[in-house]
Task: inverse folding
């Protein structure tokens, strides 16, 4: 398919190339691999093809590429360019380009091909043109930097709010703008200059405009002076060197469309065969402009091979048109147009991707052979039987596909991908890359299908309109046909967008139905609703397959799902898109939260906790009623905390996986939090508390006040963060402040901030709920502070009995039985000694704290249970009990 | 909305576009400011917004002329934002404005001189205000407000643009202040730290070089941060700087500064005059100051404790973050109380005046309707002695505080308690 177009283009363009009057600049993404012999031509083409294919899948408009092959390059480039400068823009702009391309394509393939070339000319005129011509194309699209790529990138008329008016308007008169352009068309000298000055934003803006502009322009050119139009994109074919748009190309420009993508550009350009390419300008990305020497100045002078030495990721080649209509003498390095026709014909016969691939391989072989034995230009390609290339086995496919797939594998990690960007080729992905990778790019697969479909439908369209395409310029299409096709193509993007939009909100039925609704009949003349449904079916089928098939593939999903639960579920497609932009590693757009929710079937009450490393297996997940029993079991269990913690964690996991948010969830977390407090397991307690806060905030009943008190205590005693304390205090409602536990917590806070140890230990003894457990963790510090203060302030001695009472060593504040008192006395003096206090006995034998001596000697001893790794829960013995 | 004819709309839009381009090409910053400041609700902007809503396809107008299309991206987003703003769709308005701001900052980066600094200020201000409004709208719709956060990161980006050598760096402090406002509102105060660090350590910045307005704001916010950290001397310096340099006619600003400066000063033992409190309408501090003067613990506790009628004041203290500071004044009140007892004892029995019985103190507290047993009183006395608010020692056995004969109640004199 793609080849067909290419060929067509080549035929016409090549001769023209040589004779371009006006300098035409065009961005050709050339990651040039210098290839100077004819055998490489074949590979050029093929790589081109591959590349085109890639773009096709890229999710823009498959069709364009197919028809336009050469056109495809520039557009990709453009999208790259745009990306960098205004990070937002890229989506929209390229998109528009595509639209135009499409338009061109329909009317006359030839025209299309040339189109990309001219953008510089149009540069100045474009606004005017644009204003008039492009209206139907969702005005405002171009200007939308897609912060949230999803919503805005595709402001297709009628779809989003952003596309303001004039959606319905048919393309206004084309003729006029074109003419203007023609008159004006001169290579704007500014541009190169701008390009040089690095990071010149203005430049970028121009670029953007250019992109948009140049598409429109070419048709006009052709229209008026058909002879002049030499599609420059052909250049690659002529100069073999340039032609190779190898994998590198693909990987860089198409795969990561990130700004980085085209930094790489400076790859040595092969020496160009200069005469022909007399003026090759390679305006590069401004950022890399420094690498680029002169180049630009030479542009108009016709000095040969000016910029040729460097190959930026995209190269705009400006070609002078020396003469009008040179005879198409096949030169080495160019492809005979008949060959192109041959290739095109071959591809036209192909039906499926497979066939195409095999055909491609066969073609490559044939061309290579021909060029090897020198018959490339002599052979009569027009009569060459197609059977040689058709029906061959799909053997060589892999070689080309592997490149792409390998590239593709890189891409996801490089940067967040949105489905909106041109993607790496799909068909190949399917065959060559493992499914798991496919899953990773969840969206892409869907895209895949979309693309394929649209692609096919477009082919059909092609067949309808251009069943016998007139390729010659002389036959320049009457304006109306162009318009027609333009209309179609304009709609086209809409359609695509919708579909991808539907996919993005995979769950969101509303959205997809919307998309159906919106699709205009004319747009869908080729893609029938039946096709749509089929498409959707296949999409959902694929999804099932993913789920049922190999669980491994799902790995990323459960995680995402968990995250989703933590966050709120209200995510709209837009929000998802934004999230995705930020976090950016997966295409979140495609996650179907509901579908990912597991419904457990496990009936075992006891289950060990194991952190999920794969998608949850429903057979290992307990449903709610079993979980309830499990909770009771844990509560009644006599085993130690570690066991309970383990069990509770597994319960929590099952709850999370099934997205159960109800009283049971609250109960589980509350139970766990209490147990964790009891055991002094603060990390676990914190986890539970943060979950509880969310659950309470969702309005689920629970002991919220009790836990409010805990959290207050926790902040007071352990986090030592005034701001947090203040905010949580100010958040307490009046009712909350009446609660006993909360009041207690507030008093504890007051005692702690003022250092009132007497108050603290009184509160310690009267703590409600489990407040005392939290205070436990602070007792040591408080005692130490108290003794420090007292030994500093009191003279000469303090009886230990008093300290024992004040510092909470006694069980009750009232004097208990003598035995108890001595116990607590002993504990207290032990503690004091352990902290370096000096004790003396008075004449009665009562122990006294010698304050003066103690003042200087007090110290905080290392906690006895301290372990080297800092977490006593990791104690070896505990470890064994856990694992046994 | 008044009816605007198509032609009129067209005229207004074109006029705006012309003005915008003129402002840029003549580097007329004040004009640019006027053209960008949404929140001023200036009639010209409002009428433009109406025009935009009538004349839906403004972007084609922009595209029609080279002059406009050069700023096409900026203008298109601006228009869209204005449109949404006018119809009350603040979230949309914010989103478009954010894009506008991005485009504008890109453009600004290219302008060699700092002529558009004022306009950039306006953009920074507007985006924050719009974000706040958008968040309000989001909250009322039951969605999570996140726009202010987004505005924060955008402002951070702007800061990055300004923080460099060259004339634009004087604008960095304004953006910093907007960031402070954002972060304080968001409650993510810790994010301020990185900005502060670069302002205070980067060599490109000379603090005195910044505009006074920004310096005052900066000092105010960093002073507040120090209050949070209970670093009172530093808070005192910063807030005092703000007070000294702020515009004396702006009473509201002075009041804002004093709201933090007074507690800070109080905790350093410096008590403001009543006139000051009255002049700036700081009645919430009246009782606190009185309590400190009189040693009236009850009054202080009342001032801080929630009663139905004073609930709002407590909430204010809590929200503004001075609650904990004021609470710590309790120790000074105790000190004052002891001093009073000491003076009274001195009158009756000068020889034994330096011995304060805990009983007596507890009695005095009871008169203030504060019930404390001796243990607690003893605890507080030890703390007072430990914190150096009282000189002397506590004889535990005899339950007596023995005061030093020299300066038993040392004044703080601007030093924080416990130093």
Result:
């Amino acid at each position: 398919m793609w080849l067909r177009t290419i060929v067509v283009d080549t035929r016409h363009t090549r001769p023209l190339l040589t004779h371009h009057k006006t300098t035409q600049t065009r961005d050709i993404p050339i990651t040039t691999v210098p290839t100077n012999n004819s055998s490489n031509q074949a590979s050029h083409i093929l790589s081109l093809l591959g590349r085109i294919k890639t773009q096709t899948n890229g999710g823009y408009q498959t069709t364009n590429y197919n028809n336009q092959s050469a056109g495809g390059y520039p557009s990709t480039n453009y999208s790259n360019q745009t990306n960098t400068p205004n990070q937002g823009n890229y989506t929209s702009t390229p998109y528009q380009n595509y639209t135009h391309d499409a338009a061109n394509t329909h009317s006359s393939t030839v025209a299309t091909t040339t189109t990309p070339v001219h953008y510089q000319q149009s540069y100045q005129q474009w606004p005017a043109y644009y204003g008039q011509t492009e209206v139907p194309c969702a005005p405002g699209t171009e200007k939308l930097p897609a912060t949230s790529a999803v919503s805005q990138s595709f402001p297709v008329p009628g779809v989003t709010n952003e596309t303001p008016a004039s959606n319905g308007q048919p393309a206004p008169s084309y003729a006029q703008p074109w003419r203007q352009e023609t008159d004006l068309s001169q290579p704007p000298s500014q541009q190169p200059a701008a390009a040089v000055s690095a990071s010149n934003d203005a430049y970028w803006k121009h670029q953007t405009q250019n992109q948009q502009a140049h598409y429109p322009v070419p048709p006009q050119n052709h229209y008026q002076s058909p002879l002049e139009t030499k599609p420059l994109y052909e250049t690659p074919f002529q100069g073999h060197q340039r032609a190779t748009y190898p994998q590198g190309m693909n990987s860089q420009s198409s795969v990561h469309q990130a700004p980085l993508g085209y930094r790489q550009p400076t790859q040595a350009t092969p020496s160009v065969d200069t005469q022909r390419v007399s003026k090759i300008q390679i305006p590069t990305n401004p950022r890399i402009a420094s690498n680029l020497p002169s180049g630009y100045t030479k542009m108009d002078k016709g000095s040969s091979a000016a910029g040729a030495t460097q190959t930026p990721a995209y190269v705009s080649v400006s070609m002078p048109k020396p003469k009008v209509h040179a005879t198409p003498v096949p030169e080495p390095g160019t492809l005979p147009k008949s060959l192109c026709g041959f290739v095109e014909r071959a591809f036209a016969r192909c039906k499926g991707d497979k066939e195409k691939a095999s055909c491609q391989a066969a073609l490559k072989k044939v061309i290579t052979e021909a060029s090897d034995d020198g018959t490339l230009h002599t052979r009569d390609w027009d009569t060459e039987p197609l059977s040689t290339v058709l029906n061959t086995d799909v053997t060589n496919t892999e070689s080309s596909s592997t490149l792409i797939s390998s590239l593709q594998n890189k891409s996801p990690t490089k940067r967040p991908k949105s489905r909106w960007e041109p993607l790496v080729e799909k068909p190949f992905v399917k065959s060559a890359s493992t499914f798991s990778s496919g899953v990773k790019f969840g969206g892409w697969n869907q895209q895949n299908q979309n693309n394929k479909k649209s692609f096919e439908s477009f082919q059909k369209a092609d067949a309808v309109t251009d069943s016998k395409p007139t390729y010659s310029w002389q036959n320049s299409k009457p304006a109306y046909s162009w318009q027609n096709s333009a209309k179609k193509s304009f709609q086209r993007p809409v359609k695509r967008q919708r579909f991808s939009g539907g996919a993005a909100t995979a769950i969101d039925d509303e959205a997809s139905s919307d998309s159906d609704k919106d699709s205009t009949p004319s747009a869908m003349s080729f893609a029938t609703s039946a096709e749509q449904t089929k498409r959707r079916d296949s999409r959902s089928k694929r999804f099932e397959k993913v789920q049922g098939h190999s669980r491994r593939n799902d790995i990323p999903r459960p995680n995402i799902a968990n995250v989703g639960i933590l966050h709120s579920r209200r995510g709209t497609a837009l929000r998802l898109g934004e999230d995705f932009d930020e976090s950016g590693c997966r295409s979140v757009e495609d996650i179907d939260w509901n579908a990912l929710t597991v419904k457990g079937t496990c009936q075992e009450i006891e289950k060990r906790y194991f952190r999920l490393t794969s998608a949850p297996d429903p057979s290992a997940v307990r449903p709610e009623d079993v979980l309830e029993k499990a909770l009771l079991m844990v509560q009644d269990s006599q085993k130690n905390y570690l066991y309970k913690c383990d069990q509770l964690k597994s319960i929590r996991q099952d709850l999370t996986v099934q997205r159960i948010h109800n009283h049971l969830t609250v109960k589980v977390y509350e139970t766990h939090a209490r147990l964790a407090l009891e055991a002094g397991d603060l990390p676990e307690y914190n986890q539970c508390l943060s979950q509880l806060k969310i659950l309470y905030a969702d309005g689920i009943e629970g002991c919220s006040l009790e836990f409010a008190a805990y959290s207050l205590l926790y902040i007071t005693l352990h986090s030592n963060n005034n701001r947090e304390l203040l905010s949580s205090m100010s958040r307490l409602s009046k009712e909350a402040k009446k609660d006993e536990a909360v009041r207690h917590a507030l008093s504890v806070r007051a005692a702690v901030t003022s250092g009132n140890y007497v108050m603290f230990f009184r509160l310690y003894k009267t703590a409600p709920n489990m407040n005392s457990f939290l205070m436990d963790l602070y007792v040591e510090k408080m005692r130490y502070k108290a003794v420090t203060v007292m030994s500093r302030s009191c003279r000469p001695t303090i009886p230990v009995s008093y300290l024992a009472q004040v510092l909470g060593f006694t069980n009750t504040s009232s004097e208990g039985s003598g035995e108890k008192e001595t116990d607590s006395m002993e504990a207290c003096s032990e503690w004091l000694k352990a902290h370096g206090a000096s004790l003396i006995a008075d004449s009665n034998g009562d122990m006294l704290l010698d304050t003066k001596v103690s003042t200087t000697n007090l110290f905080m001893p290392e906690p006895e249970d301290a372990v080297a790794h800092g977490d006593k829960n990791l104690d070896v013995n505990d470890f064994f009990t856990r694992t046994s | 909305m008044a009816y605007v004819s198509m032609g009129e709309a067209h005229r207004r839009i074109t006029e705006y576009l012309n003005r915008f381009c003129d402002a840029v090409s003549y580097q007329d910053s004040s004009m640019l400011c006027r053209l960008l400041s949404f929140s001023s609700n200036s009639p010209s902007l409002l009428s433009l917004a109406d025009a935009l809503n009538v004349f839906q396809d403004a972007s084609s107008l922009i595209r029609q002329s080279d002059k406009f299309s050069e700023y096409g991206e900026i203008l298109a987003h601006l228009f869209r934002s204005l449109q949404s703003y006018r119809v009350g769709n603040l979230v949309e308005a914010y989103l478009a404005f954010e894009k506008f701001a991005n485009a504008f900052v890109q453009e600004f980066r290219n302008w060699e001189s700092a002529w558009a600094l004022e306009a950039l200020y306006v953009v920074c201000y507007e985006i924050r205000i719009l974000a706040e409004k958008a968040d309000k709208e989001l909250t009322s719709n039951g969605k999570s407000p996140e726009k202010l956060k987004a505005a924060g990161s955008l402002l951070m980006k702007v800061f990055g643009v300004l923080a460099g050598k060259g004339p634009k760096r004087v604008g960095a402090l304004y953006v910093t202040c907007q960031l402070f406002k954002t972060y304080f509102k968001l409650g993510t105060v810790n994010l301020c730290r990185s900005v502060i660090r670069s302002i205070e350590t980067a060599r490109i910045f000379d603090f005195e070089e910044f505009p006074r307005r920004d310096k005052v704001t900066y000092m105010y916010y960093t002073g507040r941060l120090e209050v949070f950290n209970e670093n009172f001397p530093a808070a005192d310096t910063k807030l005092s700087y703000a007070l000294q340099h702020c515009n004396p006619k702006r009473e509201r600003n002075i009041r804002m500064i004093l709201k933090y400066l007074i507690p800070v000063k109080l905790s350093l033992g410096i008590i403001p005059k009543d006139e000051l409190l009255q002049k700036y309408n700081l009645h919430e501090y009246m009782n606190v100051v009185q309590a400190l003067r009189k040693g009236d613990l009850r009054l202080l506790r009342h001032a801080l404790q929630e009663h139905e009628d004073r609930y709002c004041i407590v909430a204010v203290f809590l929200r503004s973050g001075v609650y904990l500071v004021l609470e710590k004044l309790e120790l000074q009140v105790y000190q004052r109380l002891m001093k009073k007892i000491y003076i009274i004892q001195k009158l009756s029995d000068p020889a034994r005046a330096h011995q304060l019985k805990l009983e007596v103190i507890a009695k005095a507290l009871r008169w203030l309707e504060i019930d404390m047993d001796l243990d607690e009183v003893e605890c507080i006395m030890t703390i007072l002695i430990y914190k150096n608010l009282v000189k002397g020692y506590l004889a535990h056995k005899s339950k007596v505080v023995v005061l030093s004969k020299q300066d038993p109640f040392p004044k703080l004199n601007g030093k924080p308690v416990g130093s």
Remarks:
- The CA atoms of residues 276 and 282 of chain B lie 8 Å apart.
- The radius of gyration of chain B is 29 Å.
- The beta strands of chain B are 355-357, 392-395, 400-403.
- The longest strand of chain B covers residues 392-395.
